[in-house]
Amino acid sequence: MPNASAAGSEVASLELFKVPPRWLFLKVTTADGVEGWGEPVVEGRADSVAAAVKELSEYVVGLPANRIEDLWQVLYRGGFYRGGPVLMSAIAGIDQALWDVKGKRLGVPVYELLGGPVREKMKVYCWVGGDRPEGVAAAAQEKVEAGYQAIKMNATAEMAWIDTPAAADNAVQRAAAVREAVGDEVGIGIDFHGRVRRGMAKQLVRKLEPYDPMFVEEPVLAENNDFLPILQQQTSIPIATGERMFSRWDFKEVFEDRSVDIIQPDLSHAGGISEVKKIAGMAEAYDVALAPHCPLGPISFAAALQVDFTSLNAFIQETSLNIHYNEGADLLDYLANPEVFDFADGFVERPTDPGLGIEIDEEIVRAKAEDGHDWKNPIWRTNDGSIAEW
């Protein structure tokens, strides 16, 4: 293994903090005291990812922190079994933290190390409603009045494999109410959340077309992506997917079969900054837009923005600010510089501080970690008692 390029730049320690509402933070410290932060977590499986990070740490501690690509390849290829949400999320958090270290050591934002910015501000969208999409029209109007130019809502609650016309119409009526409330200048993302099977997806997408959604997200589960080319031929609505796809190899097929218009890799699930930047480049070659998934914390959001500012095909960024999951803590609570995420007219300005551009308030992190969390997604069942997709 090559020596460090500068004395003291070896990774000295990795420390994990499980903090509310449902996040896991990672602090990487080098021998000479440079600190970087990452967010390795799978929602509802924080302890599993924490165990994976601890297991992977032996491949990182004592090695040069500046060799990010080599370390990524070791973490990925060093195990005979690879990929999947837990391992790729563990790699993602380590990768984010190493980029944060490198940017801070060199005194520049991470995007400068990825080729420099292609834009000065990034459009963002926020969530309205909760797991079950109630009261979304009024909530959407409030967000637009607050300055957002785009919102996202869940399409449905529980849905049977083949459900009733009323169930489909209820979903469409909610979308219609949101469109009426916000007008035609506002983007409306409609998240199927993998709750809908192909038989119902065909009906819903057709019925939603008059309301011009910005996209439909995860119209079917990622394991059923082979249905997307068929759906693509049946609708003019842009199709988005990718939050449950974890590497460039997972995305290969949807690029090759031309089945998606927007990809949504998650910076805390899909291998971190190193991997999502590569996925973004693949997407650009297929004329596919990038909209990173991010219902998580400030570190994940900061990492996503670093990729957004270097990717021409990034058109919008999800933010978790005030999302319904954020009980007990929110996006800005862990930052010493919360102003970095100030939104103006639906955009966030390009950050200029080194590394990920955020300053984590470690005192608050340590205090909140004493409370921790045990967040799990709900278990839903249909009216016949069988389990439903959440």
Short structural description:
By secondary structure, the protein is of the alpha/beta class.
Task: Characterise the protein shown here.
The strands form three sheets. Strands 4, 5, 6, 7, 8, 9, 10, 11, 12 and 13 form a ten-stranded mixed beta sheet that branches. Helix 2 (68-77) packs antiparallel against helix 3, helix 6 (165-182) runs parallel beside helix 7 and helix 9 packs parallel to helix 10. The relative contact order is 0.15. This protein is globular. The chain has twelve helices and 15 strands. The chain has a domain at 112-354: Enolase-like C-terminal domain (TIM Barrel), CATH 3.20.20. It has 390 residues and is of the alpha/beta class. Strand 14 and strand 15 form a beta hairpin. Mean pLDDT is 95; it is low at 1-5. The protein is 35% helix and 15% strand. It has helices at 46-56, 68-77, 85-106, 110-113, 136-145, 165-182, 198-208, 228-232, 248-256, 272-285, 298-308, 362-371; strands at residues 11-19, 23-30, 35-38, 121-127, 150-154, 187-191, 215-217, 239-241, 262-263, 289-290, 317-318, 343-344, 347-349, 380-381, 387-388.
Supply the key terms.
alpha/beta, TIM Barrel, 10-stranded mixed β-sheet, 3-stranded antiparallel β-sheet, 12 helices, 35% helix, disordered N terminus
Mean of residue pLDDT? 95
Helical stretch count?
12
CATH architectural category of the domain at 112-354: Alpha-Beta Barrel
Q: Gap between N and C termini, in Å? A: 45 Å
Q: What structural class is derived from the secondary structure elements? A: alpha/beta
Shape: globular
Q: What ranges have pLDDT less than 50 throughout 5 or more consecutive residues? A: 1-5
Strands, count:
15
Would you give the CATH topology of the domain at 112-354?
TIM Barrel
Which bin fits the share of residues in helices?
25-40%
Helices and strands, in N-to-C order?
A: EEEHHHHEHEHEHEHEHEHEHEEEHEE
For the report, how would you describe the main beta sheet? 10 strands, mixed
- Which superfamily, in CATH terms, is the homologous superfamily of the domain at 112-354? Enolase-like C-terminal domain
Estimated radius of gyration: 20 Å
Portion in strands: 15-25%
CATH class of the domain at 112-354: Alpha Beta
